[in-house]
Design goal:
BolA-like protein 3, 2 domains, GMP Synthetase, Chain A, domain 3, two-stranded antiparallel ribbon, mitochondrion, alpha+beta
Amino acid sequence: MLACKRICSSTTISAFRALRGSQVVLFGQVQRCLSTQTDGEVRIAKLLRQKFPLASSLKVVDISGGCGAMYEIHIESSEFKGKRTIQQHQLVNQALKDEIQEMHGLRIFTDVPKQ
């Protein structure tokens, strides 16, 4: 198995993508191509853009394989300036309070833009 992992090339991965559409099967694991967004990712990103209009960077990723059970959010906004990390995360949680009820987990990464 180790030898197989070492010789797996981008050509092999491309072939898997062609066969599976928007998913890649690699050593028994299914990974989604990040060039397309799920409906949940789009919905959450839209809500966060509305709540944090000054966000300079926003990325929402469904890390549950596309089923919407767990998301990872990276958001950088000047609206977090002067707030501790826990306060920043509370703001994100508050913005997504209705959606969080349907999730099994949420990873939040916040930052203030460097100027």
